[in-house]
């Protein structure tokens, strides 16, 4: 889709606020096409990273390149290729839905009004209603319709479903995934909910405490990682470099290892790991890079 | 962008336009009646309050009928401030308050273009409304200006260029405060407070010092009643008297204690105060700015407020450009 083949490349990106660093040493190369999930606990720096990606913030260190262009230049051409849905999907509350669409048309180089109207009609959202009078789920849908009507190459969503009820959440994801299938848009979205990701996403970025702790294609990550269950031991750490996490119960030790498909040692059983467990293991790891080599112990 | 700016700010623009319009109509009606008191126009009576019987009568009727309006209007130097602050406060603050800055600045309009369009449009509305307001008010005050001049606080702050400068100052403070506080209402309050404090300091401290004042010094006249002795020395009616009092024969200014001692001495001697003072070579002095400095002073004060406004807007532009918001 782009000359580089990457939707997003960051190099040594850091962002410092007055309180301190929200993001440090963030180096990513995310492929164009597909759906990328940015996962991390609250306060991990997800919103900061996404705002850097869409050019709402400027990095304190490093560079952000979106679709092959430096995003801080924020030319109309670059801006029109990026769609953004901010957290809590802000809209001009006093505008009617039709006026929100007119806003989109007035402020964009290309804006597919018909597409937006068709989407909203399918969802039964009246154009004459004030945005502030819509339900949360409908507001999210209007914001999504606006972002999609730009026909962006990259769509960035910050916690798009966090504030929605389960029904609205499902409906929103359906519309989103339908758009991905239709338009081939690259989607980058953040979430602190890990389940359901597997169904929806191709690529994963785990952010913890302002640092990227894991990034990769989800299928690859799942084949690389295995759970090894064996008799309790505190010393079997010859794979130390590959052990992501060791959990000891009374009689057993469970190791999460990243070693490709090496055979398990005698007496040990290998199991595939679920995506949620994988993410949680990485989130539990101490964020200091120096400490990452020693195996973290959790109960 | 034009449609968007209008859609976002039409409530403020309409409310302010309506207020200025109603105010203008009221003043036009009252002002026509007041002007009718001066056959041949108020300008003909400028400075004639003490000499022409007709003019004196007109001024008396003006004071009886419309003096209260003039007193009321003295507080209206705040109207331009309300206009500026009301339009400036929501410019950035409302977007930040409601999170819509993230929507506005991720469309294809670069944020600097967005900001430039908003600043130009809303500052333009501020100036337009203030000019209309000031024009009506200046016209209304013509009879009063012919009477008292334009240098008093209730005229200088309401006429000419200064109101526009006040409005732009309030607009800039409100915009900058909104960018930092991220709330419209506190930004409005900050603009209002900042204006009151600045204007107080300027009117009392800086304004008299825009140019070196002139001084008159002349002996106390023999004639005249006791009452007149304490009143202003002879300068033009429209001059701005900053300070006046008494000096001894050498020109040294007397403190009020010294003056009251002289008054007591005159009482004890049973003499006419003016004759008593005259005999001792006491002089009256006045420190003032002549009326023809009005436009110079207007220019200086307007430049002062507009310079601060420009600096604050520069800070806002810098913050938005640096993506500090």
TrEMBL record, chain A:
Transmembrane segments: none annotated. SMART domains: AAA. The keyword Nucleotide-binding applies. InterPro entries: AAA+_ATPase, ABC_transporter-like_ATP-bd, ABC_Transporter_VariousFunc, P-loop_NTPase. This is ABC transporter ATP-binding protein. Residues 8-234 form the ABC transporter domain. It comes from the Bacteria. The lineage of its organism: Bacteria, Bacillati, Actinomycetota, Actinomycetes, Micromonosporales. Keywords: ATP-binding, Nucleotide-binding, Transport. PANTHER family: ABC TRANSPORTER ATP-BINDING PROTEIN ALBC-RELATED. It comes from Actinoplanes auranticolor. It holds the Pfam family ABC_tran.
UniProtKB/TrEMBL annotation, chain B:
The keyword Membrane applies. It holds the Pfam family ABC2_membrane_2. Keywords: Membrane, Transmembrane, Transmembrane helix. GO terms for cellular component: plasma membrane. One of its GO terms (molecular function) is ABC-type transporter activity. The keyword Transmembrane applies. It comes from the Bacteria. The chain crosses the membrane at residues 12-32, 72-93, 114-140, 160-181, 188-210, 295-318. This is Transporter. It comes from Actinoplanes auranticolor. The lineage of its organism: Bacteria, Bacillati, Actinomycetota, Actinomycetes, Micromonosporales.
